[in-house]
Specification:
The chain has four helices and five strands; from the N terminus they run E-H-H-E-E-E-H-E-H. It is an alpha/beta fold.
Length: 145
C-alpha cells in the first residue's frame, strides 16, 4: 500500500513558523506508515494526482494539538498584493477547482512542552490509523448468514 504524504509546513527562517519543522525528526522516526515532506508555505503545491492534503502546521491561538477538517476554520490574512497569496489561499483555490477534496490540518500550538505536543501527535496519528483501518475493514460486500 502506498504511504500517505503528510506535509510539514513552515518557514525555517521565521522562528514562529518553524515549530512544525522542529518536529520532523520525531514524526519521521515515530510514524513509519507515512511519508513526511517539508513544505515551505511560500512555495506552490504540486498536486497532480492527489485529492487529499494533510499537513502539520503551527496555528496561532490554540493551546494544544488540534485537528481541523475544514479550511473554513481559518481566517484568511489580509491580501493587498499578489505577494500576500498564502498557503490557505492556495488550498482554498485548489479545493474550489476540485484538485483536492479533503484537507486536514493538524495544528500545533506556537508554544508549549515539546513532550506534550509529541504525545498529542501520537494520539492524533493513532486515531487516524484506526479510522483508516475501519474504512478498509468495513463490512462492504459481506452478506448475513
Amino acid at each position: 500500500m502506498k504511504q500517505k504524504t503528510i506535509y510539514i509546513i513552515g518557514n525555517p527562517i521565521v522562528s514562529l513558523d518553524a515549530h512544525a519543522i522542529s518536529l520532523m525528526p520525531f514524526v519521521q522516526r515515530t510514524f513509519l506508515n507515512y511519508q513526511f515532506v517539508h513544505l515551505d508555505p511560500t512555495e506552490e503545491i504540486d498536486y497532480r494526482d492527489k485529492k487529499e492534503f494533510i499537513g502539520i502546521d503551527t496555528v496561532m491561538g490554540i493551546e494544544k494539538v488540534m485537528v481541523f477538517h475544514t479550511l473554513d476554520d481559518f481566517i484568511l490574512s489580509p491580501r493587498f498584493s499578489p505577494h500576500d497569496y498564502d498557503l490557505l489561499t492556495q488550498l482554498k483555490l485548489l479545493q474550489k477547482l476540485g484538485k483536492i477534496t479533503t484537507c486536514i490540518i493538524i495544528g500545533i500550538p506556537t508554544k508549549g512542552s515539546k513532550k506534550i505536543i509529541q504525545h498529542d501527535l501520537k494520539n492524533v496519528f493513532s486515531s487516524m490509523t484506526l479510522s483508516e483501518n475501519a474504512k478498509r475493514n468495513s463490512y462492504k460486500g459481506h452478506t448475513h448468514g
